[in-house]
Amino acid sequence: MSEKLRVGIIGATGMVGQRFIKILADHPWFEIALVAASAHSAGKTYAEAVKGRWKMEGDVPEQVKDMVLHDAANVDEIAPQVDFIFSAIKLDKADTRKLEEAYAKAETPVVSNNSAHRWTPDVPMVIPEINPDHTDVIKYQRERLGTSRGFVAVKPNCSIQSYTPALSAWRQFEPTQVIATTYQAISGAGKTFKDWPEMEGNVIPYIAGEEAKSEGEPLKIWGHVDDKKKAIVPADDTVITSQCIRVPVLYGHTAAAFVNFRKNPTKQDLIDALESYTGEPQRLGLPSAPKQFIRYMTEDDRPQVRLDVNYEHGMGISIGRLREDKIFDWKFVGLSHNTARGAAGGAVECAELLKAQGYITAK
User: Fold this and answer.
1) Is 243 helix (H, G, I), strand (E, B) or coil?
2) Are residues 116 and 185 in the same domain?
3) From 27, 117, 134, 253, active-site residue
4) What is d(CA 275, CA 293) in angstroms, rounded to the nearest whole number?
5) What's the CATH number where 224 sits?
6) Is 350 part of the annotated catalytic residue set?
7) Residue 167 sits in the same domain as residue 124
8) Nearest partner of 65 among 54, 76, 55, judged by Cα
9) What is the CATH number of the domain that holds 102?
10) pLDDT-based confidence at residue 2 (cuts at 50, 70, 90)
11) What percent of the chain is predicted at pLDDT more than 90?
């Protein structure tokens, strides 16, 4: 019998769910035990449900083709069959919160790609290289939910991954003000060019909800667990303002960022901090962890989506064009893979961290 943890994927037929399927097909710690989606898809085989709308490279992995989809709402049916779940379900926020907490109350940990619980005070929102200690808040969440092993953890929005890691490496220099403009791939909306032909040769200067996420979520990541409040208290020493733009790229979110510091780092100080930055995933040797989380690129025309988005299997961050600015102290360009590091891959790395920390175990 396999010693791998049994994982269920709810929302398995959408683009992020499909990316979970691809990543987990040969995962050394986790095996796909169950797939679930909406009631409309329930009862179909996975291959039938995604026929004509499989968006990943290559074919549907053999091990899931004939799996019969469950209705994600059937918590009592699904929870006993898995050790934990990944959530990529598409519901409104209130319904998502209710469903994810229902799984947690059924003693089934949830690692979510969704935004619904990102601002729940006792739910950790984790980039494992940056704030692995935020999982300490799980004990307070379990106390609130009345669970012994169930909880919800989330990963942050894909749009912040292209600049927040760099700013995290530079926290020692005390960033005070940040402007970040993100140029976001269409897969962030769950689309391909086949689905969204009007995006070819087009730019849309608005993505609903993205700017609030881009400005607020890094502050929660840089916050701390307050044992008196039994919650994560966001940082308040940095102000971020942003614009988020949809561009005709399939994968890869690019950011152009400007930053002021309280201290006065040199360019070499900043580059050294990027290249030496490492975290718990690297120390623990987590399966999805990039060997080098952040790389600095010296070429004037890098990072580029076409050349660099798959750095470290899409789990690494590329930073370039670091230079002094006439108004701000420094400016730079960042690039991240939005469905690998930014979505499913980031959630898988979170689950690996939670397993290593003892929060996710076999039932």
Assistant:
1) strand
2) no
3) 253
4) 8
5) 3.30.360.10
6) no
7) no
8) 54
9) 3.40.50.720
10) low
11) 99
